[in-house]
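Hello again, I could really use a second opinion on something today. I've been puzzling over a protein and I'd love to understand its fold better. I'm sending you its amino acid sequence along with the backbone structure tokens. It would help a lot if you went through both lines with me. I've dropped the whole record in just underneath, so have a look.
***
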Amino acid sequence: MGLGVVGTGTFNVLARNQEEIKRRAGRGIEITMVADLDVAKAQKLAGPKVQVVADARALIANPDIDIVIELIGGYGIAKTLVLEAIAAGKHVVTANKALLAVHGTEIFAAASARGVMVAFEAAVAGGIPIIKALREGLTANRIQWIAGIINGTTNFILSEMRDKGLDFDVALKEAQRLGYAEADPTFDIEGVDAAHKATLMSAIAFGIPVQFDKAYIEGITQLSAADIKYAEQLGYRIKLLGITKRTPKGVELRVHPSLVPAKRLIANVEGAMNAVMVQGDAVGTTLYYGKGAGSEPTASAVIADLVDITRLHTVDPLNRVPHLAFQPHTLDQAMSDLPVLPMGEIITSYYLRLRVADQTGVLAQVTSIVAQAGISIDAVLQREADEVGGEGSTQTDLIILTHDCEEATMNAAIARMQALPTVLAPITRIRKEELAG
């Protein structure tokens, strides 16, 4: 259903590697029917042996079809068609992270009740097999945290800002010109796409329901070239991270720009590439890197799901790998024990940039407020006024790095600092993640 960029890639890779895939799956996997609104274009791509229809319901109604691939996207008709395919007894492969992050609980329950599989490797990090790693490869581990660069558009923009000293708006236009960003890039630059993916990884890692509505989401639109430059001087790079973490109080689920030490491998992931770090108690830190989007990288994940279903579709449903890694009948207790924490309760460290009057005593005022809040300072950097505002400037930038503290405590301290008459502009706050094993 849908023969766009990923659908075309899936079609081409299946055709090209048919023999190898057949040897791995134990039988051939053939696309016999395609539903796409542009029938003529789809028929030209699919060739004469494939039936092309405009109505996806014709595909669902076909009794000879075992697996339906949903590559339409979005929350609307895709949800209806996926549920109808499940009701018809079809297995479903989808790359639709938005649909599963918002409606996954309902969809997985329907699939379990009908005894069919919903496979979604392509929904997170494109060609990187991160779902399989979390659900199967790391199954011996108690997962402690996941941190990922899981949106290529924003990573490309941040790379451009750092490499060329560009401001956000200019870097975004370049990303659009090169085709890395959509005409309407909101889902990417505001962090929503990354949050969809982080929500799915969180559910698989910790055995909780998909709860996109509880994710904290902050994009990159407010980042300035100055902050990227200062971070670099302090030994950090700024990345938009999707983070989920197990804590004694519950699960953190958040997407926001983060300072990451430049020596970490993930800090050196540039351009439109994706990378995901996973910390397990037995394995330690693992890193998964590759193309997070594109026709054939995403098709690679779609076809891996097709092969999995082909191998497993005759297996008793109770003995298949569960959709979200944990056996459904064991989830009630585990789920009730792990709430998703509000942002005020998360603990991390911070980068603060204050535009202040260049006069005696300002640093003492600011650090006094931080100390009174019980926040420990890791480093302070004060720029020369001439460097910030040009010769004769009466303003300067003050940069503070803190040790770990609770977000609510930091919010209160920032409010007090912002009220100082010597603080001349809104304070910039970026969270800092050391990502140490």
